[in-house]
Model the fold of this input.
Amino acid sequence: MSDRPERRPPDHIGADIWRAFKAFEAAMYADLDAEGFADISVADSDVLVLIGPKGTRMTALAAARRITKQAAHEQVRSLLARGYLELGPDPTDGRAKIVRLTDQGDALVKVLDAAKMDLHARVTARIGTHGMAQLKALLADVETLLR
Amino acid sequence: MSDRPERRPPDHIGADIWRAFKAFEAAMYADLDAEGFADISVADSDVLVLIGPKGTRMTALAAARRITKQAAHEQVRSLLARGYLELGPDPTDGRAKIVRLTDQGDALVKVLDAAKMDLHARVTARIGTHGMAQLKALLADVETLLR
DNA sequence: CTTATAAAGTCAGGCAACCTGACTACCAGA
DNA sequence: TCTGGTAGTCAGGTTGCCTGACTTTATAAG
Done:
């Protein structure tokens, strides 16, 4: 007996976009695992990627990710404990703290960027520069239409 | 002073795909809210959409969503409590139970499908049938390449 | 200079959507 | 009939968010 539900939900472009995204994400974290950063979650990488070269405030981080400062705090705390981030005072504001990448964190961000650009390059190799431009434009159309 | 982190992460196709998906999802749940189904989470709709006309086994549901049977159980329990699903025995297997849509659940699924198809139609109106076919093909390329 | 308001970060507690492990009830083959 | 596997449930843990209630520091108003 088949183990699958009998219903085949209607085919729509949202499902196609979702599948492509999931494939990209999976490939991305497979790359990360291969580079020895298996303990990095999606939320972790989303935080790390936002840290500027001179460091970034907690509040700016929270605003950029559209999460509460408490949620951002929790994420930063976890990355602090694992040695990817370090905390310092903000010289211009005694209330604020500056989150900075450690050398380990910087290495991780480089791997993250490299993984993304590698996947980007692989996709380009497959569908061509023209196809890439088309895809980008079409996705932008979808986004602006629906937003 | 700017409140944004100074780092601008490298632009890659994964980000474009992600933004388009998020826009689709947001539009989808805005539609759902407008129809009076504001209490439906993403996980809820993911379950509902898999229920076949003759009902579906818990295990089949879990397998289709690639989650554990325990997680599926929890979701079904919540939808049961809100009257969208009902549970019956499987006549062919004393261990199994069949999850079925109630009338209310069926109405919700129809709204879900309609919302998806409406968004699909709006996107088609924007980028044309040809653009849609292109987008679908390009996304499928990305998916098969990276999977 | 004081006082009010607000903003940055922290702590406590809660919730949704998953997970593992352990269990009961049932099925099917040797 | 025993034995191993499958369907579902219960208990408890984790992650990534949330709201609310603080403390400390900055800033604007009187």
